[in-house]
Specification:
68 residues; single chain; 0% strand; mainly alpha
């Protein structure tokens, strides 16, 4: 895994966590806009994390194929 890949994965995880916190804060405070923004950030971060998982799996499969 390259340094850039690691940075991207950390950024995506942070976006997911930030969205969760913002969503919870919005829910607790009754601020529907903040809650919705947090939900959007959480979903975006989670989708990017899944894309990172797929990218890693493809790279791993490619490396295994190259080794054969």
């Amino acid at each position: 895994m390259s340094k850039d890949d690691l940075k991207r994965e950390i950024k995506d995880k942070a976006e997911n966590i930030k969205g969760r916190v913002k969503e919870a804060f919005g829910a607790l405070s009754g601020n529907k806009r903040t809650e919705a923004e947090g939900a959007a950030e959480r979903v975006s971060g989670a989708a990017k994390e899944k894309a990172d998982d797929v990218r890693r799996a493809v790279e791993r499969d490619r490396e295994e194929t190259d080794d054969e």
